[in-house]
Amino acid sequence: MPRVCRRLSESKVYHVMIRGNEKKCIFIDDKDRNKFIDIIDKKSSDKKFIIYAFCLMNNHVHLLINEGEDNISRIMKCINVAYVYYFNKRHSRVGHLFQDRFKSEAIEDERYLLAVVRYIHNNPVKAGLSTDPSKYIWSSYNTYINGNGAVYSFIKCEPILEYFSEDRDEAIKKFIEFSKNKSDVDENFIDEPEESEENEVKSINNEEEAVAFINNFLRSKSIKMEDIYNKSNIFLRTELIKSLKMKSKLSVRQIAGILKIDRNIVQRIK
Question: HSE (CB half, 13 Å, CA atoms) of 90?
């Protein structure tokens, strides 16, 4: 089936999402997340395109981009190629990391632009990874509100904040209130809903079923149980732990016990 042509934006602004192949994690740890952020920082440093907002989730990323003098397809190719090269080299793997080409939607009006910014920043809250966007450091939210979290200099807040007020302090105050308002719940944004653990059916009810799931997982990857302890297979181990946490009713202690690994390792994987 031929690919559908990407809808181009007259405003040059796009909401973009990239996701892991087969819904797998694209970030194993904070070093990976920092590397991805460093890449989009460097790629946007020539000012040919602008990043208004971003959010890194476990298996996908949201970006709000003004392509400016560049082209959205070229921008995403440069970002993706650089990150995949780093990721595959660091984790001793080969093959595709991202699923298909990136998804995008054209942003053509002010109301939808602001709604997308709010939606991107609230993704971690929706997925149950945080109780408030300000407590999630892997997004641009704290850059907007000058909070205590990570502040990213490459994010261009002014064009968005100016919609709220010409006075910056007043604009930030209104932006925070706007971010808490969920009036646009019926908007159809591009997303990866499987990120939310609350939406995942808990099909593994006990340790016996968990062991059967693990055996099937190992068989599908053509590896043995002892192989998941090798550094070269950390990506697969993370995928297995995440799957068990999402699909089972087992506690962190139980998962760690079955896999014979430290509880803290299981606890850190979201």
Answer: 17
Cα–Cα distances (Å) from 30 to 33, 37, 38, 129, 152, in that order, read: 5, 10, 12, 15, 15
Which percentage of the chain shows pLDDT scores above 90?
A: 49
pLDDT value for 183: 56
For residues 269 and 242, the answer to whether their CB atoms sit within 8 Å is yes
Residues 6+ apart with CB under 8 A from 75: 43, 49, 65, 67
Q: Which two three-digit tokens encode residue 269? A: 């994987």
User: What pTM value is reported for the model?
Assistant: 0.70
Q: What is the pLDDT of residues 141-155, one digit of tens each?
A: 999 998 656 689 999
List the one residue out of 224, 203, 202 whose CA is nearest residue 214: 224
**Cα(257)–Cα(233) distance, rounded to whole angstroms?**
19
Reading the block at residue 80, the tokens are 């993706």
Q: Who has greater pLDDT, 235 or 148?
A: 235
**By the 8 A CB rule, do 245 and 259 touch?**
no
Q: Cα separation of 22 and 36, whole Å?
A: 20
Distance of CA 118 to the CA centre of its chain: 15
Give the tokens for residue 18.
């990239």
**Nearest Cα to Cα of residue 16 among 38, 48, 40, 45:** 40
Task: Tell me the C-alpha distance between 54 and 68, whole Å.
Answer: 17
| Bridge partners, 107 (sequence order) | none
Q: Under DSSP, is residue 56 helix (H, G, I), strand (E, B) or coil?
A: strand
